[in-house]
Specification:
There is one protein chain. By secondary structure, the chain is α+β, with helices and mostly antiparallel strands. It is built from 4 helices and 6 strands; from the N terminus they run H-H-E-H-E-E-H-E-E-E. The protein starts with a helix and ends in a 19-residue tail after the last strand. About 20% of the residues are buried.
Amino acid sequence: MAFYNKIGGLMRQSISQNCISNGQVTGPSMFNAVRCMSSKLFIGGLSYQTDDHSLKEAFSGFGDVTEARVVTDRETGRSRGFGFVNYSCDDSANEAMKAMDGQELNSRSIRVNLATERAPRPGGNGGYNRERY
């Protein structure tokens, strides 16, 4: 999904530069199609009773939700208290973020932010530190 967001950003930038450099607007429908690529929201503070379906229902009033996923513990299957909602349009995601941040969902106050990429984590050599010896 991050790859598509990057591609969308590059396409938006390219189109806006072409419109400015040519001095003409090539058509709002093309710009809107590119502008409405995909936006991902991070939803924190979810109740353990919140599932994918109820998360999608809560956020579908703001636009076309392409995916809603509550992150679960892989061993217990229990919710980890956060999830993600993907919208097909940036405007819908921004509207949902403004309206839902701090609101209650299943008796819990939720936090809604734009999702960001995870920072790379060090490691990967199985706990064996070659530089020590």
